[in-house]
Amino acid sequence: MTRLKLEGTRDAEICEGTYLCWIGKNALTWNRCYTLSPTCGLGFEAPRPFFRSGFSKSWIHCPMQRVPQTRPSRSIWIGATMLGASLAAATVIYLTHPVDPDDEGLLVGVAAFLWPFLAFPVAWITCVTFGVLDYRRGLHRPALLAVLLATLAGPTIFSGYVLNQKPWLSPAAKLKDPWPDVRAHGAWLLGAKAQPESIPLLIAALSDPQRDVRSSAADALAQFGPRAAKAIPALVAALDDKDGFVGCEAGEALGAMSGLHQTVLPPLLAHLSAGTEQQRWCAAKAIQKLGTEAAPATPILVQQLSYDDPNVRGKACEALGAIGPAAVEAVPALTKALQDPNQWVRKAAQEALPKIQHSN
Fold first, then answer.
1. How many CB atoms lie within 10 A of CB 237?
2. Which of 152, 176, 156, 153 is nearest to 166 (CA)?
3. Bridge partners, residue 4, by sequence
4. CA–CA separation, 298 and 292 (whole Å)
5. 328 neighbors 355 (Cβ within 8 angstroms)
6. CA-CA-CA-CA torsion for 208, 209, 213, 215, nearest 10 degrees?
7. Burial class for 343, CB neighbours closer than 10 Å (0-12, 13-18, 19+)
8. Which long-range CB contacts under 8 A does 92-96 form with residues at least 24 apart?
9. Cα–Cα distance measured from residue 27 to residue 31, given in angstroms and rounded to the nearest whole number
10. Quick one: DSSP state of residue 224?
11. Is residue 22 helix, strand or coil?
């Protein structure tokens, strides 16, 4: 493509093998026609009579071809690149099922976070901007196609997340899948549906080698409440899971079993009185869910108000408040907790006291 100055009027872009007919400034005039030769450069041809009507913008009686638009569409290249990048990202996301979901590597980080949430919005705005410019240049179809490709690139990325969880499998079949994140999603689905026949499957999932699967299974069992009574032994064993988060989820599942406090309270109290800081906090949270049924836990909860960790002291205050008037013996200790050096403990004690003294 060559840029030339013709007739002292404006620049024109012409390509080899095409003809250019240049019109003068007047409505009816004689004009010269040129052709670009790869060997001779710009060659002059004899003047040819053709004219343009002063009342029309179209060419009339022009014996030569008009110069075609040869500049490529910038927006369509951006749109096509975006769609290709999204397909690549979706493929990486779909094929990546690490044993440790917290260690997915740089490639997955770029595909799952950097491209869809940071780079994609900037690229989309850039494509639309160039699309508008191309449209104004007369490239209507390429501009619209570019915007369409860039827009389709968005859902293409997230299709990788959908396919990653193998939606064609049933929740029970997902629990048998070799990929741990698929098994964890299957456990979550079983908890969402809360069908009784799913309880044995979730009990078995509590022994899964991957912590995310065990955590999802415990969380799913919490959705069943007292209907999952047969899972109590497995959940009690999960309280001592090597991963503290799994133990917390198991404690919450025990705390959701209202009406079975005589069975679930003893193991929770054991962890509350002799567990680690995390185990004590999780046990207090589970006891809090039991509410008034956890009245026998009041003495041990009062003891936790003098524990070293402020998180445990604060959660013990909340648990005593959930027990309500049955925890009246905790009023002196809660009153003392109003002077606790930790502001969150003071706030928890302040909120718990009215709940206990409400009926007294």
1. 14
2. 176
3. 12
4. 10
5. no
6. 90
7. exposed
8. 92/160, 93/157, 93/160, 93/161, 93/164, 94/160, 94/163, 94/164, 96/164
9. 11
10. T
11. coil
pLDDT in tens, 11-32: 343 333 333 444 333 333 333 3
Nearest to 176 by CA among 218, 168, 184, 192: 184
Residues 292-335 have pLDDT tens digits of 898 999 999 999 998 989 999 999 999 999 999 998 999 999 99
For residue 230, the one-letter residue type is: K
Which stretches of the chain are DSSP H helices?
74-95, 105-109, 120-136, 140-164, 171-174, 180-193, 199-205, 211-222, 232-238, 244-255, 261-274, 277-290, 298-304, 310-323, 331-337, 343-357
Tokens representing 140 are 């209507």
Residue 37 confidence (pLDDT) above 80: no
Compute the residue count for the chain: 360
Per-residue H/E/C for 331-353: HHHHHHHCCCCCHHHHHHHHHHH
How far is it, in rounded angstroms, from Cα 81 to Cα 156? Answer: 13
